[in-house]
Every structure is written in C-alpha cells, then in structure tokens.
Write a structure and sequence with these properties.
Number of helices: 11
Radius of gyration: 20 Å
Mean pLDDT: 84
Distance between the termini: 20 Å
Structural class: mainly alpha
Low-confidence stretches: none
Number of domains: 2
Order of helices and strands: HHHHHHEHEHHHH
Number of strands: 2
Strand content: under 5%
C-alpha cells in the first residue's frame, strides 16, 4: 500500500485524488486483508510474517505484477474457534478479529462499525444458571458456550447491560446497539430463544462467509 501512496504522491501534495486511485487503493486493501486473514487462519501471525506479506505486496505492485498470495485454508479451519474440547483455547485476539471481519462481511462492508472498545459478548450466557433453561443443561451449555457462533461484538457499555441475562432480555439491548447490522437483526428477530441450532448455523455462516471472502 505504501507503493500506491508513493506512486500518487503528487495527488497527496495537491490534495487531489482521482477515482481510479480510490478504486485501486480499495482493491488492494481488500486483497491485503484477505492475505492477512489466511495467515491468521493458518496460525502465521508473527510480526515477520505480516512484514514479509506487506513487503511482497509493495514489491509486486512496483513491478506491475498482480499481488499473489496463498489462499490455502486448513481443513476445518474454524475448529479451534468452535470446538467443544475444553483443551482447545482459542486466541482471544483472533476470535475478536474474525468476529469483526464477519460483522463487515455480514452486510458487505456497508456499515461503519466502530472498533473502539468492542468486547466479545456470549449470546448464550457465560455463567450456567440451574433453572428451566429450555433445551439447555449444564453439559450442553459447556459444549456450546465458547463456539464462535455464540459470540458477537458489542461496545463495552451495551455488553455490561446485557450481563448474564437470557437471550430474550439481551435482545432489548441488542436493538439499541449501533455496532452492526447483525446485532440489530438479532435484537429484532421474533424467535426469543437462542438454541443449539442457532449456534451451529452461525458457525457455518461464519465459515462460509470467510471462505467466500478469501476466494472471491
């Protein structure tokens, strides 16, 4: 991206930008985002990996070569983020990154989602409550709680308000959220129950969205 800025340095000096530059910059920004996402899903996120990726992009742009990168995703790449195995502890930063990316993919990057003070919210409450809880029991709660399909991003204040409430009560807070289109839709949906099927379906939706984004 630095090369694109350098190549258009006169536009920066004159504070003039043409439409072609804006389109080109957006195209390569998305390609860089895809490449970085592949690195993350392949557990290659150290500073050298990212630095080499950015250097490669700038070098290829300088040579008028289309930026190329591996689109190889590991089999069941979301397993680490949706497994019920308690021995698998997903990296919280990666979870947050994937949820933030999915929030944008959900509405095709049409929302200006503020990243400041976003927190991971567990739709199914984190603390098990030993009461009438529909299809849930303590065992199933433990199995589904940390799956990525059970997590969304909320701003800190809304997340605090949601506390450890049931889904139907959380929906009222989701409606107030300006975080993302998906959160608003969760708040307004007629079904007041958050089920195993909901979590499983969202796991698949996130996986499909990421695959489509990388291979688009």
């Amino acid at each position: 991206m630095a090369f694109l800025v350098w190549r258009n340095k006169n536009n920066f000096i004159k504070d003039k930008f043409n439409e072609n530059f804006n389109k080109e910059f957006e195209i390569y920004l998305l390609e860089l985002l895809k490449a970085m996402t592949v690195k993350i899903l392949n557990n290659k996120t150290n500073a050298n990996e990212i630095k080499d990726l950015v250097f490669k992009m700038n070098a290829e742009l300088n040579q008028n070569i289309n930026f190329s990168y591996s689109k190889l995703l590991p089999e069941r790449f979301l397993n680490n983020f949706s497994s019920s195995d308690k021995n698998i502890k997903p990296d919280a930063r990666k979870v947050k990154y994937l949820l933030y990316l999915y929030a944008h993919l959900y509405d095709d990057f049409s929302s200006d989602i503020q990243s400041h003070k976003l927190e991971v919210e567990h739709i199914l409450p984190k603390t098990w409550q030993n009461m009438n809880f529909g299809e849930w029991n303590e065992t199933s709660h433990s199995e589904y709680l940390e799956q990525i399909g059970n997590k969304i991003l909320l701003n800190k204040l809304t997340n605090i308000k949601c506390a450890n409430n049931f889904f139907s009560l959380k929906q009222e807070k989701y409606k107030e959220s300006h975080n993302s289109q998906e959160v608003k839709e969760l708040g307004n949906r007629e079904d007041k129950i958050w089920s195993k099927v909901d979590i499983e379906s969202r796991n698949k939706a996130i996986e499909l969205a990421l695959k489509n984004f990388i291979n688009k």
